[in-house]
Write a structure and sequence with these properties.
By secondary structure, the chain is α+β, with helices and mostly antiparallel strands. It has three helices and two strands. Strands 1-2 form a two-stranded antiparallel ribbon.
């Protein structure tokens, strides 16, 4: 949970593809596995959503 803000801050200003978001935050997470766990949790909490047509993640207020 402590790393949620790092991922969310990457999505505050623009929608991003998951690989682009990972590159932005990879210095703040241990590995891609942890990154995926964070995305799973944020999705379950309703904080992010996936636009399947564009393939991007979007921050949800």
């Amino acid at each position: 949970m402590a790393k949620f803000p790092a991922v969310l801050s990457g999505l505050e200003t623009e929608d991003l593809k998951p690989d682009v978001l990972y590159r932005k935050v990879k210095s703040k997470v241990a590995d891609v596995g942890e990154f995926l766990e964070i995305l799973d949790c944020l999705f379950a909490l309703g904080k992010i959503e996936l636009n399947e047509e564009e393939g991007v993640l979007r921050y949800v207020d």
